[in-house]
Amino acid sequence: MIQFLLNRELRSERALDPNTTVLQYLREHRGKTGTKEGCASGDCGACTVVVGELVGERLRYRTLNSCLTFVSALHGKQLISVEDLKDQGRLHSVQQAMVDCHGSQCGFCTPGFVMSLFALQKNAGAVNEYDPHQTHEALAGNLCRCTGYRPILEAAEQACCSKQPDQFDAREAETIAQLKAIAPREMAELSDGEKRCLSPLTVAELAEVYAANPEARLLAGGTDLALEVTQFHRALPVMIHVGQIAEMKQVQLTDRHIEIGAAAPLTDCYAALAAEYPDFGELLQRFASLQIRNQGTLGGNIGNASPIGDSPPLLIALGAEVVLRKGASTRTLPLEDYFIDYKVTARQPGEFIEKVRVPRATPDRLFRAYKVSKRLDDDISAVCAAFDLTIADGVIAEARVAFGGMAAIPKRAAACEATLTGAPWNQQTVEAACDALAEDFTPLTDFRASREYRLLVAQNLLRKCFLEQQAPTTETRVTAYV
């Protein structure tokens, strides 16, 4: 059984298909049709809802794509949909702002925008505080096809600058007490009699249940796994949800590493990675949408073994490791050795990624990362490049170069690295290393880019890295190219 709050109503679900998404649950099981399905793939934001959860003694509100969230992920949390904002016949201030600023035309995307604005307003630091950058980030995952964003941005400014206590603030203590009462205390199971989803609470419990069910699919944020249900209409007979395991959601700093639990949402990874590697932080801000980053995990981005995942090239260049666990045994593997072939990894049956270790930055390292995509926000990379160079007295002492989108797996550029290592850091060396990239990769052609384009872009990104280091700029380096 799982328990959660549907706004203020306690819901206990015992016999429900665990393949049911939150979007389906709202529309088909609860009759709440304000939340819309636009794409069923987490791209348009029409299905955006807000989930409240306890962090210590406070409530935290985050947006999610309900089309990619399975109901089991709601266990112990509060689900808020657009119907819940109106109170005693009065529109919520974010709804009123959309009306006042004429932010809606056909209205189909409007509920998603309203929920993103609601979370933005809730998370604003102070009354009458408006941050344009935060607003753009909050709305980047919401697409409007018929009006344009100026009136919606004006609505965001009005909502944040006229922030007043609402019914959620008035009931905060009550909500916290309700969530404490339903906090998970033992492994939960959601099943319709045929399909089931298990939610362990500890790493040891996960190891045990995964060993007993090696055929199960591991579910973290579900932003990739859910597509099998929503896009390919496949049933997932057994899932194990890792989102309740506190140990696997931690981000910790040691003397040598940033240790990131495999179930930590990307939003929670941002501060630590951005502080050590600003380019990594900039890339994370362009990693899909805020809704996806609130849900997707670093462990999941590695575990799905996509050749165009954004984080693996950066992590490989930095020399990151994954800690794999099976039963009571663990082993540590360099991330570059985790990927074997397209969608094939070194993970054994019953083995899972427990955490990721990223070496901390040192003053002598030059780290640059670049994402090339057709649009700036919420898009998949055509090429993702990462360069980690140690330069001493004008000579490259060590070079680690990795790319995504250039092969069947994210991988290092061995010939390019060999050309760079021990050579002077100058234009001649860079040009020779660019030529060497043609030995490292034979990219494919697909709808995102041709093989010729990919190779030329990869070479140009190395040139860009060199030129930026010669004349540092404060402009954003994680650049999109059309």
From TrEMBL:
Domain FAD-binding PCMH-type: 190-363
Origin: domain of life: Bacteria
PROSITE patterns the UniProt entry points to: 2FE2S_FER_1 (PS00197), 2FE2S_FER_2 (PS51085), FAD_PCMH (PS51387)
Keywords: FAD, Flavoprotein, Iron, Metal-binding, Oxidoreductase
GO MF assignments: 2 iron, 2 sulfur cluster binding; FAD binding; iron ion binding; xanthine dehydrogenase activity
The protein's enzyme class: oxidoreductase
Domain 2Fe-2S ferredoxin-type: 1-85
SMART domains registered for this protein in UniProt: CO_deh_flav_C (SM01092)
UniProt-listed SUPFAM superfamilies: 2Fe-2S ferredoxin-like, CO dehydrogenase flavoprotein C-terminal domain-like, CO dehydrogenase ISP C-domain like, FAD-binding/transporter-associated domain-like
This protein's name: Xanthine dehydrogenase small subunit
